[in-house]
Design the sequence.
């Protein structure tokens, strides 16, 4: 373990001297829950000291308890998603992104009032009705993917099932031609996976993939300028922000395309793959859901709580602020660990149990406050159609090899998960309340 280089005088000491959250090797077997359970046992927040691996050799605040995170996420004036203090860059990752990579121009790294106006502008592109209209096509695709996986009897769940649905969903939402989808997906994977680099670094493959993805986005946005439709990108290129804020700049328009692609693909894929892994590790919960299909909606929320595909987001303090005994100074980085809050036993009964019938589940997997996830309902629909297709056809799963995790502290993701399936018995022999579940809609 690397040595911590400095400490912070104005806040709680970092209680885990051997744990460096900038060391991505800590995240190569999934999210380090045991470490965060220990952290939550210490009154926080805590200042994570600079280490050889922290970008810019700069420390950052760590919020791990649910009740500490919520007020910070709610206050997007003191805690900025854009930047703060004298720093040039900013954004929602531990490493500062430069302004040229979206800080101040992409919705999740913008502050109000422009952020709120942009949300209002694009919201009609992702309404309940628009999402519901995708259900049949997504359900058919999920069923076909599961049938094919079952025909083979085994395979990689990520590439066979979990990756396909989000790709189809986002591509259908935006109107991306089918022949382009897998290439876009490969670029995004290369940008988000830190297999060959450290935080704050680019590698040749990530830089090249980013460049190609941006060039594709530019062509796509230009196409929407020429012939707008009713999708999110068309709304961004044709609409007014209102309140005297004018229109989006061409960079902001491009960033709408980028964020929907990047935010919508990996996260949902990881929720689906992580959800199946949770059922493999808790087979009794699978049997229970098969018998009580009416539990599908609480099961989805439990998968989200359990997998927390976006483990943290960062803010930057815009002024000095005291929290408990800690002084957070203007310009300091503040990280909010949703994945930790989601296992906080001050909020969740039996927080470390995976329970598809959990009745109260105010998880923070989609964040909290003004920047809460815009795609939450779409993600839930994708997860539900996959789960239904699996429940209809699969009695159980086994791991047929090692689970390969993505090397990242920003996405809790599974790169590869070899699975062996056992097919379910015919429909008449199972599901005592499938009819009750037929009316389950988000
Ligand atoms: C299970 C799947 C998903 C998870 C776990 C997830 C998680 C999150 C989280 C934690 C945030 C808050 C970021 C912050 O506070 O800084 C967020 C924001 C966002 N998400 Fe998602 N997301 C998911 C799916 C999607 C999908 C499918 C889309 C697109 C259709 C999407 C689009 C967005 C956008 C645009 C924002 C920024 C909202 C804003 O800043 O106002 N997400 N998401």
Sequence:
């Amino acid at each position: 373990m690397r040595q911590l280089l400095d400490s912070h005088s104005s806040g709680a000491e970092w209680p885990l001297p051997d744990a460096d959250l900038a060391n991505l090797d800590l995240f190569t077997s999934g999210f380090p829950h045991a470490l965060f359970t220990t952290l939550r046992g210490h009154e926080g927040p805590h200042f994570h000291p600079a280490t050889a691996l922290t970008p810019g050799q700069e420390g950052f605040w760590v919020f791990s308890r649910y009740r500490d995170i919520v007020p910070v996420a709610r206050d997007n004036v003191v805690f900025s998603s854009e930047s703060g203090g004298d720093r040039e860059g900013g954004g929602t990752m531990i490493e500062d992104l430069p302004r040229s990579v979206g800080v101040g121009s992409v919705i999740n790294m913008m502050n109000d009032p422009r952020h709120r106006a942009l949300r209002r502008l694009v919201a009609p592109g992702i309404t309940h009705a628009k999402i519901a209209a995708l259900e049949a096509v997504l359900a058919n695709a999920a069923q076909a993917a599961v049938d094919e996986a079952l025909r083979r009897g085994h395979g990689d769940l990520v590439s066979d099932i979990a990756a396909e649905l989000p790709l189809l969903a986002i591509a259908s939402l935006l109107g991306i031609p089918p022949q382009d989808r897998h290439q876009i997906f490969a670029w995004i994977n290369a940008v988000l996976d830190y297999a060959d680099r450290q935080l704050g670094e680019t590698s040749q493959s990530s830089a090249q993939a980013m460049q190609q993805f941006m060039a594709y986005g530019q062509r796509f946005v230009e196409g929407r300028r020429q012939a707008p439709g009713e999708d999110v990108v068309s709304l961004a290129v044709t609409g007014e922000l209102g309140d005297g804020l004018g229109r989006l700049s061409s960079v902001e328009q491009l960033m709408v395309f980028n964020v929907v692609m990047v935010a919508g693909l990996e996260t949902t894929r990881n929720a689906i793959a992580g959800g199946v892994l949770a059922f493999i590790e808790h087979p009794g919960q699978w049997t229970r859901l098969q018998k009580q299909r009416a539990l599908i909606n609480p099961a989805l929320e439990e998968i989200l709580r359990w997998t927390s595909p976006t483990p943290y987001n960062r803010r930057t303090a815009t002024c000095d602020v005291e929290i408990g005994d800690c002084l957070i100074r203007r310009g300091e980085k503040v990280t909010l660990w949703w994945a930790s809050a989601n296992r906080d036993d001050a909020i969740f009964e039996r927080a470390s149990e995976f329970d598809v019938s959990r009745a109260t589940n105010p998880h923070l997997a989609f964040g909290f406050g003004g920047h809460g996830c815009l795609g939450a309902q779409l993600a839930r629909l994708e997860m539900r159609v996959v789960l239904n297709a699996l429940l209809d056809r699969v009695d159980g799963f086994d791991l047929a090899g090692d689970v390969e995790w993505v090397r990242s502290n920003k996405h809790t993701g599974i790169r590869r998960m070899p699975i062996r399936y056992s097919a379910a018995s015919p429909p008449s022999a199972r599901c005592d309340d499938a009819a009750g579940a037929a009316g389950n809609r988000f």
